[in-house]
Amino acid sequence: MWNRLVLVAALVCLVGCNPAPKSEDIADLGFILKDPDGKDVRLSDYRGRPLIVNFWFTNCPPCRQETPVFIKLVEKYKDKGFTVLGISVSDTPEQIKAFAAEFGINYPLFVAADREDVMEAYRAIMAYPVSWFVKPDGSVFLKHLGSASPEWFEQQVMGLMEASGL
Fold first, then answer.
1. Which positions are annotated as active-site residues?
2. Residue 145 gets which letter from DSSP?
3. For residues 48-77, b (16+ Cβ closer than 10 Å) or e, as one string?
4. What string of DSSP letters covers 23-90?
5. Positive/negative CA dihedral, 161, 143, 19, 136
6. 110/93 Cα distance (integer angstroms)
7. pLDDT digits over 105-157, tens only?
8. Each residue of 25-68: pLDDT tens digit?
9. pLDDT over 60 at 10, yes or no
10. pLDDT at 100 over 70
């Protein structure tokens, strides 16, 4: 009985807690992914700017819920170099293109189906969405599992900007 309670408590924390980044946590921007048009893109091309590296998929309700929030944040903070890197964990390029058109996405999207190496590097394996808030030097400001309110995301991006000296 106690083992089950401990397991349930651990799962609740896993879903609801934001793991604090360790000082050595650096976002691995060394990957090359394909955009929905099949073009190779280096994530390192985005080094030097504040980022949210977001793992999602088109049929994920919380992912769909946070997409308009990301669009507004990118629009609001683009002059400071902020962007979101949307990494789809299971969708085809056609599904990603349809999603981008439906929402009017203003940030880059990437295809990562069958890229366990990328998902393991970001510990984005079991539940989605997963968002890493990354400072321009590549260090991790915050890791977040699940969705949140627009106000929460705004506060975190403001904190990211402040921690980045912007």
1. 63
2. E
3. ebbbbbbbbbbebeebbebbebbbebbeeb
4. TT-B-----EEE-TTS-EEEGGGGTTS-EEEEEE-TT-HHHHHHHHHHHHHHHHHGGGT-EEEEEESS
5. negative
6. 8
7. 999 999 999 899 999 999 998 899 999 999 999 999 999 999 999 999 999 99
8. 889 999 999 999 999 999 999 999 999 999 999 999 999 999 99
9. no
10. yes
